[in-house]
Amino acid sequence: MKKLIATLILVIISYWTAISQENVRQVITLKNDWKFINKDLPNAQDPSLSVKNWESVSVPHDWAIKGPFDKEVDKQVVAIKQDGEKIPTEKTGRTGALPHIGVGWYRKNLDVSEVKSDSKVILLFEGAMSDAQVFINGKKVGGWPYGYNYFYFDISSFLSSDQENILAVRLENLPQSSRWYPGAGLYRKVQLIVKDKISFNQWGQYITTPYVTPELAKVKISSKVSSENTKVEAVIKDENGVVVAKKTIAQAYGNEFELEIPIENPKIWDIDTPHLYTAKMNLYQDDELKDSEEVKFGIRSIEYNADKGGFLLNGEVTKFKGVCLHHDLGPLGAAVNKAALRRQLTILKDMGCNAIRSAHNMPSIEQLELCDEMGFLFLAESFDEWEKPMVKNGYNRLFKEWAEKDIVNLVHATRNHPSIVMWSSGNEVPDQFGSDGVKLAKWLQDIFHREDPTRPVTVGMDRVKEVMESGFGAIIDIPGLNYRTHLYKEAYEKFPQRLLLGSETASTISSRGIYKFPVVKTIGKEYEDGQTSSYDLGITSWSNVPEDDFILQDDNPWVIGQFVWTGFDYLGEPTPYNTYWPSRSSYFGMIDLAGIPKDRYYLYRSIWNTEEETLHILPHWNWEGREGQETPVFVYTNYASAELFVNGKSQGVQKKTKNGTKLERYRLMWMDVKYEPGELKVVAFDDNGNPVAENKIVTAGAPHHLKLEADTIKEVNEQKMVLILDGSIFILLVESFFLGLLLKKQVRFSTLGFWL
Questions:
Q1: How far apart are CA 213 and CA 301, in angstroms?
Q2: Each residue of 166-222: pLDDT tens digit?
Q3: Residue 504 falls in the annotated catalytic set
Q4: Which of 233, 366, 428, 643 does the annotation list as catalytic?
Q5: N or C: which end of the chain has fewer CB within 10 A?
Q6: What is the pTM of this model?
């Protein structure tokens, strides 16, 4: 009996110890009950100012996405040098024609009634667009101008225990501050972190894996703390919550503890097996738990080595099959939405994509978490400008004072993500010219190396001739070339690194389901309807068809991969329709704004997705009025040959070949097919000539009915649900979540998506 009682006491003590450990740190996401006004009010931070008439919003929030579209918003009369323009023209859709310019104020009451007087309270912003000015109870806490960065303030001394505490945030977007739609507002998470004054520093954990084999891995943890006379305990758990290692250290170097922990038979983080571990870091003083924090990480090795074949992930040569992504989510705007991000990555994964470049700014934490979880390599980019401007009010205004601070925050906030395998300090910066640019590139690269010596740095360089002459390209860890495929060989021979990255490739343009005749390669071609052809032969003055990059990747081991511009269409930059209203979103994506793949998606899938069958036919087969006219048929497939049939009549066999044109190496094309309504069928053959797969499309008849099936249902509030479909986004009013969806209004179409 005594034994039983003793055991129960131990269980109770253990239980309450666990509870107390959970309570030493609170992380509160400030999502709901914000007030917002889209105007600049004097003294809006004053707690006495009534916000009764302000709009109620939740955060993340993008104030501009609701529109309306207006050609006067951020109208720019400029010559876009990156596009080779020499004469200024009126650009009406460059930044999406949505009302992101101006000032917005946010207010929120902070309930700190249960916060102990000796607590440290951190206010964390993961992005605020832009020029954030933060106030507590009318007093300015601080500011952070760069809208894409993560930043925080210790607000402990600003809080009052005997009155209501009011948080106010002023944001302002200047005109001509971006080359694309930046969004507006508190578009990423805002959090309160409540902890003891004796605690881990914000972003104070730095986890690396300097030694990795299938049998043994070394996990190195650097942990920074805010006080002396403490000790740090690290408890490492696998994905199933099983403790695999534990270590305590009491010896600090200044305010930094360093732990080295062996992990036997580690589960390796890889593209196909993205295993994650959790390090629970506990901070003690006099055996009292003062702080506890959990950090996810992956055990993996990366190496860039020309002699070993390029980029190696866990010792295996791996090509970057990547895409560039802007941060907006099309119809959803810039506000971070993890479900929408997951949907994007799921679609890209099916294409065979294995890497993401955050073009041209710092990624959201949610995006990195998903890439860790789903097995994507990540190129984390920082800036689109240095000292010399691309746009009048761009980052050039901030560079001298803020560049180092911004890089430090980027690295410290994200360096534990195993998906990140490379940093980028810039994209197409005008500073590529001359010796001053070389010095800046070296300075920025050194900051990255100082803060994280485990990853190399690249720059997306579009002035390839110039960077070869100036030495700019020679000092970059991994030279990144934006386009200029005809200069790859020359750059490889001149640069000492003996490796090249296609940091931005293709920029092929197309509209989904739109086909133009005749079927020929076009450069910057504009049509009266403001569309481009989905035969995937349309390019810009600086870009190329996908095949140019495929050939470079396939034939040259020193080309370590590519990041295609772009994975998804995005708001703004409507090239080649920069002067065509109402064009206001891009044509570069393999996938359109609604998340529906274009034909080009299947061209990449046929090459990148080596595990699954691709057999895609284009164009559609609904051409009333084209009877008897040549209507070329393309097939994108991972098979080497196929036969085409029109209403059962063979159009011949086509085979991929390296001996023909570059298109014939990757596409099957029947250029002289004459249209007749009915059935278009393709039969694919294996390497031995045996039929192994077929696909067909038919001429459509009259519409019959519309069927909607949800792949995700998310509750917004008591009365509203969001229905996310494969291709479109619907908002449905519901009577009851449990009784089912009940439409209250008819759905109407908008160019951004579908709304009630």
A1: 9
A2: 999 999 999 999 999 999 999 999 999 999 999 999 999 999 999 999 999 999 999
A3: yes
A4: 428
A5: N
A6: 0.91
